[in-house]
Amino acid sequence: MPDSKALAAIPLIPSNTAPPAPEYPWPAPYKAAMFLSFDIDAESAWTSKDPAHAARLVTMSFGGYEARVGTPKLLELLADLDLKATFFITGWAVDAHPAMAEAVLKAGHEIGHHGYHHLLPDPGDPFIIEEIERGFEALQRRLGVRPIGYRAPFGEFCEELRVALVRQGIVYTSSFRDDVRPYRHRLADGKQGTIEIPVTASYDDWMHGLSARFSPRSIFPREHVLSMWKDELDEVRDWGAMVTTVLHPQVSGRPMRFRLLREFLTYAKSCQDVWITTGAEIAANYQRHEAATA
Ligand SMILES: [Zn+2]
């Protein structure tokens, strides 16, 4: 049970004081948008839960699938559909699987920052700054890339992280769950933060498609997930808003999930009012309209 002192310390203001998302139009002829993004955690998805997993070889093999099969297959799919996406890659995954990361870059996709060891950026965590710096360093050293986009491991944030990312030149982040359009963060001191491209759990494939020894559960079939993904997209098209996918090659690179994703993306492409694009493009669209209305 929380004690009364801890309860009294909860501020009586919204946790996010950013103004409402501006209704900037999407580039013509589009009426809605899809931020097509993937998170490559590889084995760091597992070692971030427990470093001792490094010696549990079958647990690690879930992540290893990303380099062996999942990522190459997804790159094939994106090439077939002529789509460009953003891949948020942990520094560890880039160091352990440089050829996989180089293939993503070579295919023309955007590379985003996703921490180094995929550690949860919890308030007060001593690794927050080190995770950011080591992630940048690995992407620069292996790929020659300085990313402008960041997605938090485990999708968690704190004020220290928001401030540090602005200081490091990150332009957009994509982790918050509180909108259906991009908006600009306002830091606790009132200064401007990053542009947020919000996400929703319905497009996180991990929720529906992964079962492991430490989270044994049934996975959802194609019909179930496809109906959810289509409904969310179709309603968002009516709203003129956007969706963000959070797809993992160790999930969506599996044959059944791959088939499902191909069907969904083929459907999304057939909706000619949906702008399917990278985070960098969505952030640039936001910046153009923000500058024009300033
Ligand atoms: Zn991740």
Task: Tell me what the structure shows.
The protein has helices spanning 4-8, 44-47, 57-81, 91-96, 98-106, 128-143, 159-167, 205-209, 222-239, 249-252, 255-270, 279-293; strands at residues 32-35, 37-40, 86-89, 110-113, 149-150, 172-173, 183-186, 192-196, 242-244, 274-277. The longest helix has 25 residues, at 57-81. Helix content is 45%, strand content 12%. The protein is globular, with a radius of gyration of 19 Å. The strands form 3 sheets. The chain has a 4-stranded mixed beta sheet with strand order 5-6-8-7. The protein has a single domain, classed as TIM Barrel (Alpha-Beta Barrel), CATH 3.20.20. Helix 3 (57-81) packs parallel to helix 5, helix 3 (57-81) runs parallel beside helix 11 and helix 9 (222-239) packs parallel to helix 11 (255-270). The model has no long low-confidence stretch (mean pLDDT 96). The chain binds zinc ion. Zinc ion binds at residues 39, 41, 45, 114, 118, 153.
